[in-house]
Design brief:
single chain; about 150 residues; 2 domains; cilium; cell projection; dynein light intermediate chain binding; about 10% strand; three-stranded parallel β-sheet; Rossmann fold; flagellum; P-loop_NTPase; mainly alpha
């Protein structure tokens, strides 16, 4: 069954739209993605309180299929209660280009590499894959450039 997913970045002034999206999701069972929640800590505290209250007093208003996905950078004031009631997934940025490439190459399986090698455009595909992997590590390159000062962004 297809799920409807609504997403909203938690920039300045997005709280009313996020509240509306969350309310709708809780009622009909859709999924909601709140992005950059470290920028909307007040809204996160409000979300924590709302979920606790609805679970305790109005469970019929909290649809069984409702899911709220939250993306955030680490922040010391992020509501601990919200973290405790959540399933957490982390993605740590590797330190440096070598670590980034090693991590990305580790994702590749031999079956995938064999599938690329067995095609008529094998050389082109290998080059495209290498370029994609290096581009994937580009944020690491930019971070290293800022840290060591050898480029201006």
């Amino acid at each position: 069954m297809k799920k409807k997913v609504g997403s909203i970045p938690m920039d300045q002034g997005q709280e009313p739209a996020a509240r509306k999206l969350l309310q709708q999701g809780m009622l009909v069972g859709s999924w909601v993605l709140l992005q950059n929640c470290h920028l909307g800590l007040k809204m996160m505290r409000e979300l924590e309180t709302t979920i606790i209250q609805k679970r305790a007093t109005e469970p019929e208003d909290l649809h069984d299929e409702f899911r709220c996905w939250i993306s955030a950078e680490p922040h010391p004031l992020f509501p601990i209660g919200l973290l405790h009631m959540s399933i957490k997934v982390t993605n740590e940025v590797p330190a440096g280009i070598r670590a980034g490439l090693n991590g990305t190459y580790a994702w590749l399986t031999q079956d995938n590499l064999d599938a690329i090698s067995g095609t008529s455009n094998a050389t082109w595909r290998k080059d495209a894959l290498r370029t994609l992997l290096h581009a994937h590590c580009r944020p690491g390159v930019a971070a290293a450039a800022r840290i060591y000062g050898f480029a201006r962004f």
